[in-house]
Specification:
The structure holds two protein chains of two kinds.
Chain A (H helix, E strand, L loop, with lengths): L8 E3 L1 E6 L5 E3 L3 E10 L9 E5 L5 E10 L2 E4 L2 E4 L5 E9 L2 E3 L2 E3 L2 E10 L3 E6 L5 E2 L3 E10 L9 E6 L2 E7 L11 E9 L5 E9 L11 E10 L4 E9 L10 E4 L2 E4 L5 E6 L2 E9 L2 E10 L3 E9 L3 H9 L8
Parallel strand pairs in A: 1-11, 3-12, 14-20, 21-27
Antiparallel strand pairs in A: 2-4, 4-7, 4-8, 5-6, 5-9, 6-7, 9-12, 10-11, 13-15, 15-18, 16-17, 16-19, 19-20, 21-24, 22-23, 22-25, 25-26, 26-27
Chain B lengths: L10 H19 L18 E8 L5 H10 L4 E4 L16 E2 L5 H5 L6 H7 L19 H20 L4 E6 L11 E4 L18 H13 L3 E3 L2 E10 L2 E11 L26 E12 L8 H4 L23 H8 L4 E2 L11 E2 L3 E2 L15 H4 L4 E2 L9 E3 L52 H5 L17 E5 H7 L15 E4 L2 H7 L12 H17 L19 E5 L3 E2 L5 E2 L6 E3 L5 E7 L12 H16 L8
Parallel strand pairs in B: 1-2, 1-9, 2-6, 9-21
Antiparallel strand pairs in B: 3-5, 4-5, 7-8, 8-9, 10-19, 11-18, 12-13, 14-15, 15-17, 16-17, 20-21
Classes of the chains: A mainly beta, B alpha+beta.
Chain lengths: 323, 623
């Protein structure tokens, strides 16, 4: 019986990327993937090639080297996403071929990927408060990229009501004990009028490569008239009259710590202030101190439970703990 | 082995009792109970038997076992854990017992059973937040407590407990007399297996355990009681119990954990055993704080994120309550469950899963607990903020806890029963700790934007602070103080990064919006500039949270005591829903209702009462 002439078998294939590329990826990210070609008949396509067309039109050719469960794959390849955020399109082409009686159809697929700018966040710290009106001071502004990009050399700003009032450049080393918070010391000048200032530390992301989102951190500080007067405080223990050193004192929002003689000088503007004294085991309060010139006052602090005493009292019925 | 009693179930029994059992079974199934069917009440074979079988070996179980043994009964204690002690071994161990104890006489303190009874039922004592301390106590149960209080104390001393000054008082043991004494076990830092949590409770447990073993009490450790056998589902005597083998292993180990002492241990490893109780079963299983479904009967807010004092050494899983309810027992005295500090507590220890006891690396349980926790102390709250699961503050962080109950000296010119007491609300406890109107815990448990149906749980509370606070307070924010691996402590360069990280905690069911946390901190920092907290009136907020890195420490309130449970009478017999005694079934301590007291007082006293009565139990259904 005569054999029928051989018939060309045009096997259809599907092509793609493993693992599947997420719908959204970070700009400039490195993705490790394999390109695959799957023949419906499970044909082994090792030695054939696949072309990868990057969003900028660059074409790279990759050989299919492995065959598992009816699918032929390339070695792992590293693909870099564009630095610019936005939708980018990748092309994948299998040119097809004919080998003896078997042919494989060509196939092409386009893959849209949403390339995201890197998230950033800002911290502002070491902000003095209160600050006398019109006084120069500095704040620290730090920026962290969510993917830990080194942001050294990028600009940060301090803005007041949208107006830039200070600029700095992020330094080479991250702030101590942080993973990647690059920071700058930014000189600024306090507003000319008293009140609570609402400013913000800003990272614009401009010129950052790959693209980074802008971010900001609002911060506040108190602006006061210049401290024209001096409150000379002496803090004593009420029961003994002994000086109380190392006590925190607050005259309104102005703070100081008493010396060994129980004394502290606190410069303040004219006004009426509550004086509060606090230290472990003692507390004192002098309400309504009117300051219209230099003034000396003594605050007698009374005994209060120490931290250790309060803690011991609370834990009294509970377990004494392993160290 | 004894032969089990059994009788056939006729049609009338099935209709009148089996139908009731079906209803109970349906209800219990929802609480995770193992519910026997009507024809499976009695086992085909008893594996062990004793006159009295005690479920649990803690502050109630050990006194019950010893008392029953003293009365001539043979006793088996069935304990789910690898060692004795339950929650009681982790406690501070203080003994709130009065009524004229030798210790009170030695210190010139006048007291009497009548005085104890009057105190613990005094309607007029009102806590700072308006909740009555003693009003809802069951009077029959308190009368029995008062009458047995002094005897219990002497019993404990006779069985090896040593008490020494200082004496102090608090915790709902009445205002007429100083009643709280402290046990002493020479050297608090006893070898770790003796006290797995390091607590003074070992000073009570270990002497009692030694006494029990010396007197011939047998211990079936590693067996969890799953059901109580009764002649029929809701009638007849209690016959014994069924327990299943539940050995414990440290993570990564295949070696079973073993008890500190072994004399009297029953060496069994059968998957299931049936233990016959010739006279009685005593439920001393420690309450329900570890059973989320059960504890929510009394306070639906106590969802799963709230960890439990006692765990991971002891689990107060409501097994006693569930087994008893499956054979008809009633709950009782549920009003006591509300507004008590120890039911739900704010802790000064943060950054670890288990923060009631601080489990240090020397504890044998440390492989379970993984971190000791960071103790920020009371002043620490001025240096942090607390935020809910969506990154928002909810209260003045320095705000106090729910009141701890009243005791001697808390109300000036106290006159029992006087209406004037209601106007003299105690403002401080006996130790001088200020008791404020409690808001913090309630605010922490409040619903928020992240609360999802059906439970609308509040979710975790995170304590947020910065590097400056850690430096000021000299907080060591490294392991083993904090649990970084399992998501109970996080460090981040910015607040936004910190918010993203907390989703790694398994109880953080919703993302914490980074912008929320950043905005919350910025607003709080502005309050520091202003010198006043415009949202929650925290007294003169002093410290900004602005210096990187930033920290989020687990600070979710913790469940502790159970102050409601099974209905008992003065003899500690369990009563059913019709108010009838369930013959042969007793209960005491945190699984029993009718008492508001915290700790060892009621536990040991009801152990003493139940053990004595169980040893002499005769078939009776009358009260």
């Amino acid at each position: 019986m005569a054999a029928s002439p051989p018939r060309s078998l045009g096997h259809a294939v599907t092509i793609g990327v493993r693992p599947a590329v997420p719908a959204a990826v970070d700009a400039g990210a490195a993705l490790t993937v394999r390109l695959f070609v799957a023949c419906r008949s499970g044909c082994d396509l090792r030695g054939r090639i696949v072309r990868l067309v990057a969003p900028d039109g660059a074409v790279t050719v990759h050989e299919l080297t492995g065959h598992v469960d009816g699918t032929t794959v390339t070695d792992e390849i590293c693909v870099h996403t564009p630095h610019a955020a936005g939708v980018s399109t990748w092309g994948l082409v299998f040119p097809g071929h004919a080998a003896g009686r078997v042919t494989h159809d060509a196939a092409a697929v386009a893959m849209d990927v949403d390339v995201r700018p890197h998230d950033t966040s800002v911290v502002v710290w070491d902000v003095p408060s209160p600050v006398p009106v019109g006084t120069p001071f500095t704040v620290k502004v730090g920026v962290r990229c969510a993917t830990l990009c080194r942001l050294t050399g990028h600009a940060v700003e301090v803005r007041a009501d949208g107006v830039t009032v200070g600029r700095g450049t992020l330094g080479a080393l991250p702030w101590p004990d942080t993973r990647g918070l690059h920071w700058a010391e930014v000189p600024v000048v306090a507003p000319a009028t008293p009140g609570l200032a609402h400013w913000a530390g800003i990272f614009t992301g401009v010129n950052a490569t790959p693209d980074h989102r802008a971010s900001q951190a609002p911060f506040t500080f108190r602006v006061e008239p210049p401290p024209a007067h001096r409150v000379a405080l002496t803090v004593t223990v009420r029961d003994t009259g002994a000086p109380l050193g190392g006590a925190d004192v607050r005259v309104g929002v102005y703070r100081a710590v008493t010396d060994a003689a129980g004394q502290a000088d606190v410069p303040v503007p004219a006004g009426s202030y509550d004086v509060v004294v606090e230290t472990d085991g003692f507390a004192g309060h002098l309400p309504g101190l009117d300051v219209h010139g230099d003034v000396s006052v003594t605050v007698a602090a009374v005994r209060t439970p120490t931290e250790a005493e309060e803690h011991e009292a609370l834990e009294r019925y509970e377990a004494s703990q392993w160290g | 082995m004894g032969k089990p009693r059994s009788r056939p179930v006729n049609r009338r029994d099935f209709i009148t009792k089996g139908a009731a059992a079906g209803v109970a079974a349906t209800a219990m199934a929802g609480l995770g109970a193992t519910v026997p069917d009507a024809e499976a009440q009695t086992p085909r074979q008893w594996d062990l038997e004793a006159d009295v079988v005690v479920i649990g070996s803690g502050a109630t179980g050990l006194p019950a076992a010893i008392r029953a043994r003293d009365k001539g009964a043979s006793v088996i204690v069935v304990e789910a854990n690898y060692d004795v002690g339950g929650h009681g071994i982790l406690s501070g161990g203080s003994l709130p017992l009065g009524g004229g104890t030798s210790w009170q006489k030695q210190h010139g303190i006048e007291d009497s059973p009548d005085q104890v009874f009057r105190d613990l039922t005094d309607w007029s004592v009102v806590l700072p937040h308006g909740i009555a301390d003693y009003r809802y106590n069951d009077r029959e149960v308190q009368r029995a407590f008062a009458d047995n209080c002094a005897a219990t104390f002497e019993f404990l001393i006779a069985n090896g407990i040593v008490v020494r000054p200082p004496a102090f008082d608090s915790g709902s043991v009445g205002l007429s007399a100083l009643r709280m004494s402290a046990p002493v076990l020479e050297g608090v830092n006893v070898p770790s297996p003796m006290s797995p949590g390091g607590g003074r409770g070992a000073a009570n447990i270990r002497p009692l355990e030694a006494s029990a073993r010396a007197k011939g009490v047998r211990f079936l450790l590693n067996y969890h009681m799953d059901r109580i056998h009764r002649e029929s589902p809701t009638a007849g005597r209690v016959l014994g119990l069924e327990a299943s083998y539940k050995p414990r292993f440290l993570p990564g180990s295949t070696t079973r954990m073993e008890s500190y002492r072994s004399e009297g241990n029953i060496d069994l490893r059968k998957p299931t055993v049936n233990v016959r109780a010739r006279r009685a079963v005593i439920i001393a299983s420690g309450g329900s704080s570890s059973n989320v479904n059960f504890r929510r009967i009394f306070d639906p807010r106590l969802t799963e994120e709230h960890q439990v004092g006692g765990e991971p050494y002891s689990f107060q899983d409501a097994s006693g309550e569930l087994a008893a309810m499956s054979i008809g027992a009633s709950l009782w005295g549920t009003a006591n469950a509300f507004e008590r500090r120890r039911v739900i507590m704010k802790r000064n220890v943060v950054g670890a899963q288990y923060t009631y006891t601080q489990w240090g690396p020397n504890s044998p349980l440390f492989p379970f607990t993984r971190a000791r926790g960071l103790n920020i102390g009371i002043p620490g709250w001025q240096h942090v903020i607390s935020v809910n699961q969506v990154g928002k503050r909810f209260c003045d962080e320095t705000h106090g806890e729910l009141p701890d109950g009243t005791g001697y000296g808390l109300i000036e010119n106290y006159v029992p029963g006087s209406v004037r007491n209601t106007k003299a609300k105690p403002h401080a406890n006996a130790d001088g700790v200020k008791q404020e109107t409690p808001l913090y815990v309630h605010a922490a448990l409040a619903m928020n934007e992240g609360s999802m149906p059906p439970d609308y749980a509040a979710g975790p509370v995170w304590v947020i602070f910065d590097a400056a606070a850690a430096a000021r307070r000299k907080w060591n924010v490294e392991p083993p103080n904090v649990d970084l691996d399992q998501g109970y402590f996080f460090v981040a360069d910015t607040l936004e990064e910190l918010a993203r990280q907390v989703t790694r905690n398994k109880y953080q069911k919703v993302p914490m919006p980074p912008a929320n946390l950043a905005a919350t901190v910025a607003r709080y920092n502005s309050f520091v500039d202003l010198g006043r907290d415009e949202d929650f009136d925290k007294p003169t907020p002093r410290y900004k949270i602005d210096t990187p890195p930033f920290y989020a420490a687990w600070g979710t309130p913790v469940c502790h005591d159970t102050v409601t449970g099974l209905r008992i009478n003065g003899r500690c017999q369990v009563l059913d829903l019709r108010g009838q005694v369930i013959p042969g079934l007793y209960c005491g301590g945190e699984s029993a209702g009718g008492s508001n007291q915290h700790g060892w007082g009621r536990c040991s006293c009801q152990g003493y009462i139940s053990g004595g009565n169980a040893a002499e139990d005769v078939a009776t259904t009358s009260r």
